[in-house]
Design a protein that fits this description.
12 helices, alpha/beta, seven-stranded mixed β-sheet, globular, six-stranded parallel β-sheet, 358 residues, 26% strand
Length: 358
C-alpha cells in the first residue's frame, strides 16, 4: 500500500512509499479506502514539531473514502459506505461528552499514541490518530462518519476539518451578531470558512487580513467586504470602526504575535476568537489590567466549538442549499505521488486547499 511518510520530525519533505501496511483492524474498527484528502496547515505544524506528534508518521487528517471492511461489533457501517474521517470522535461517556462538549472529548487524542501503520523498518503512526495521506487507514468506527451519496469525496474531506473548524468558529464559538464588524486574520481554507460563517450570520463588515494577494482576492469572492495586507490593519481599524476596534476578530494563524495583534484590534467588550493551533511554548502575553479594563472575551475555538457530527450535517445542508461555497476552496489538485508539491503550495500560500487524490 502507498502512503506518504515523514521519517523524522523537522523534515520538510514526505517520502511516498509502497511498503506501508494499515494495521490495528479488529473489533470496533473499520478499514477505509481513502479517496480524497485535504492538506491542512496542522499537517505542516506536526511535521515541523509545532504540534506534538510521535514519528515516524503519515500526515493527513482531513479525508474521505469508502468502507472496505468492518470489525466485530460495528453495526452502523458496512462495506461500500461513503464516509468522512473524523479525527476527533466523541466517546459519549466521558465528562466532556456528558456535558454536551463533545468536541473536547480526549478519546481521539489517545488514538494518536497507537501506531496506525507499519513498514518492514517498524511502526508508523498516523497524524491525529488517522493518517489520511495513505491509500487505506484503519480507525475506530466512531472516526468513520457516513455521508450521503451526493456529497463528492473532495467536498466531504474539507468538511472533515477545515470547513467545520472555520464555520464553527463563527457560528458556534463567536455566534456572530447580525450587523457587526468582523476581522479575520489568516485567510487559508479555515479563515475563508470563518468568513463564510460570518457572512451567513449577517455581519455588516468582514475584513480579511492576509499577506498573500491571491488569498485576499479569494476572500472577497467568499464574502469579505474588504481585503487587506497585515500592515494595513491599523488603517482598516480606523476606517471601518472609527478606531474603536472590531466587534469580532478571528485569529486563524496560531501565533502569539498575531493573537496579540488580534487582541489590540478587538474593541473593548468585543470578542477575540483564537482558531489557529499554535505551539506549546508560544505564549500570549496580556496584562492583568487590560484583561480587567478592556473586558474583551477571548474564546478559543477547538474544531469549531460544537458537536462535530451536527456540524458536518449543517455544512452539508448549507452546501446543498448554495449558502456556502466548498468547491471553490479547492484551488489545486495533485495525486499522492506529488504530495510535496502540495506542501509547497501550502507553505507559499498560493493554495486555499489542495486536494490530494488517492
Amino acid at each position: 500500500m502507498r502512503a506518504a511518510v515523514l521519517h523524522e520530525i523537522g523534515q520538510d519533505k514526505l517520502d511516498v512509499l509502497d511498503d506501508v501496511e494499515a494495521v490495528g483492524f479488529g473489533p470496533g474498527r473499520v478499514r477505509i479506502r481513502v479517496r480524497a484528502t485535504g492538506l491542512c496547515h496542522s499537517d505542516l505544524s506536526a511535521m515541523a514539531g509545532v504540534l506534538p506528534q510521535p514519528g515516524p508518521f503519515v500526515p493527513g487528517h482531513e479525508g474521505a473514502g469508502e468502507i472496505v471492511e468492518v470489525g466485530e461489533g460495528v453495526s452502523h457501517l458496512r462495506p461500500g459506505d461513503r464516509v468522512v474521517v473524523c479525527w476527533l470522535p466523541a466517546c459519549g461517556t466521558c465528562p466532556a461528552c456528558k456535558r454536551g462538549q463533545t468536541h473536547l472529548c480526549l478519546a481521539g487524542f489517545l488514538n494518536a499514541g497507537t501506531p496506525n501503520f507499519k513498514r518492514p523498518a517498524g511502526d508508523v503512526f498516523g497524524f491525529a490518530g488517522t493518517g489520511t495521506f495513505a491509500e487505506e487507514v484503519v480507525v475506530d468506527a466512531g472516526c468513520a462518519v457516513p455521508i450521503p451519496d451526493d456529497v463528492p469525496f473532495d467536498i466531504a474531506a474539507l468538511i472533515g476539518c477545515g470547513v467545520t473548524t472555520g464555520l464553527g468558529a463563527a457560528l458556534n464559538t463567536a455566534d456572530v451578531e447580525a450587523g457587526s464588524s468582523v476581522a479575520v486574520i489568516g485567510c487559508g481554507g479555515v479563515g475563508i470558512s470563518a468568513i463564510q460563517g460570518a457572512r451567513l450570520k449577517g455581519a455588516a463588515e468582514i475584513v480579511a487580513v492576509d499577506p498573500v494577494v491571491s488569498r485576499r482576492e479569494a476572500a472577497l469572492r467568499f464574502g469579505a467586504t474588504k481585503a487587506i495586507s497585515p500592515d494595513e490593519l491599523a488603517d482598516a481599524k480606523q476606517s471601518v470602526t472609527a478606531g474603536e476596534g472590531f466587534d469580532y476578530v478571528f485569529e486563524v494563524v496560531g501565533r502569539s504575535t498575531t493573537a496579540r495583534t488580534a487582541y489590540e484590534t478587538t474593541r473593548r467588550g468585543g470578542t477575540l476568537v483564537v482558531v489557529g493551533a499554535g505551539a506549546l511554548d508560544d505564549f500570549l502575553q496580556l496584562s492583568m489590567f487590560e484583561l480587567f479594563f478592556d473586558e474583551k472575551r477571548i474564546l478559543p475555538s477547538m474544531y469549531g466549538g460544537g458537536d462535530v457530527l451536527r456540524s458536518y450535517e449543517r455544512a452539508i445542508a448549507l452546501w446543498r442549499a448554495g449558502r456556502i461555497d466548498l468547491a471553490g476552496l479547492i484551488t489545486h489538485r495533485v495525486p499522492l505521488s506529488d504530495i510535496n508539491e502540495a506542501l509547497d503550495q501550502m507553505r507559499t500560500g498560493v493554495a486555499l486547499r489542495t486536494c490530494i487524490e488517492i
